[in-house]
Amino acid sequence: MQEATPSKEGHTQPLSIEHVPDVEAAHLPQTPSEPSGVAVKLPGTPSKYSVPTDLDVKFDDGTVVRSHAVVLAIASPVFGEMLTTETGKLRSELMLPGKLATEFQMFSQALLPAGLRPSSVTEESQYLVLVRWANEFEVDALKTVCEDHLIKDIPVKSGSLKHALQYRLLRRRAQCIRHMVPELKIYIEEIGLLATEQTQEDLAAIWPRICEGANVRLFRMPPVEQVNAMWPFVCASVRLQAVSAVEHIHTGISKVAGDTTLSFFDRFVFW
Fold this sequence. Notes:
It contains 11 helices and 3 strands, in the order E-E-H-H-E-H-H-H-H-H-H-H-H-H. The chain has helices at residues 69-75, 77-83, 101-110, 124-136, 140-153, 160-166, 170-180, 184-191, 200-214, 224-258, 264-270; strands at residues 55-58, 64-67, 93-95. It has a 3-stranded mixed sheet with strand order 2-1-3, covered by helices on one side. The protein is elongated, with a radius of gyration of 27 Å. The two termini are 53 Å apart. This is BTB domain-containing protein.
């Protein structure tokens, strides 16, 4: 897979989504004798790989997007169930209430075989959209590719752990924890999101660091229900200790700099 590399302007270069399994030509229906829409086909692409746009996807604002029922049904079990009739045929119309046509177009294009994709994904916001769609419609291969990009090219910041937890990005979650623990003062509130039954082991692993940051004697981590109840106090304690440490350093610097009677040994002992 071609990896995204930072450009001189700080943006990432296009990352081709080649982990998404290509749809084999043998699995595609033959093009009907009567046109069913404009097929997605790039110049020089063998005709057997053209995919007919045989589906009208409708949105709340009245927008209609022509798409590929067979590609959606094969890539996504959710779409497969939505599109398949009781007789086993694929529907020619589909309504997606509450969705944006622009996001669907980006998602559906990412599912196409590599040679048929009209554009590449380049921006962080685009990958965040694709992660959300891939999670909802259970396209694990696409979600994995997006997670690879986030891990490699998008720095951890406030909100990153919440996003990883929301969309079950396990490797991104681990990366966020490694980055956030050394900066408890900044991220302590978000780290509290780990206080769930599903992620309590991650929280238990960093519990000693949290106790240290709050300047309390290490004790066994309580059940997550209790941790959630006490977390506002944990956050306040960690931030107070961080502020106290800074104030102590500033006070010490002022004392040493202003008191000329202190000997070198006194100054050494003070620190």
